[in-house]
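Chapter review: from sequence to fold.
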Amino acid sequence: MRSFSRLLWTACLLLPTLAAGAQDTTLAPLQTIPSVDVTRYTGRWYEVAKFPNRFQTQCVSDTVAEYRPLGNGRVEVRNRCGLQDGTVEDAVGVARQIGAAESPKFQVRFAPAWLSFLPVVWGDYWIIDLDANYTLAAVSEPKREYLWILSRSPVVDAETYRALLTRLRAMGLDINKLATTKQTGA
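The token string follows.
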């Protein structure tokens, strides 16, 4: 039994390394936008589409993110979404800016504050596309496993959306994985 347990722990430790080695290395590193005005970026954003992920499986509609500056390069993150039974789930976290005050790179944590010393509770949140009016954004992370398209309104002009998808595809993101977020107006 001990050898099985040891084998299991070894496999768990090696899996991330093996997965990293299996990634496509032909893609250039993901680039962010040059800078962001955090004050302009804060406020309400509607999720238009996303790569499906394990932590949003319960969300079926009306996903909204609200950002509020806390100072010192930190931002409160409040995510809401509609559930199948008609109720709303609310998750509150914090984002910390990585680098200078205009850096478009953040790390987000939804785990309790007392766990914030653990690197694994922080996830990368990189703004990779943002229009000049701060009305349409795309957020991802270095491995391109996650992608969110956010808008200040629940509906995005079709031509503007297609242009964004073209830019995201050029960055090496598989836009075929995008799932559109249902908006019920609730």
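Two observations follow directly from the output. Residues 38-180 form a domain with the Lipocalin fold (CATH 2.40.128.20). Residues 33 and 128 are 5 Å apart (CA to CA).
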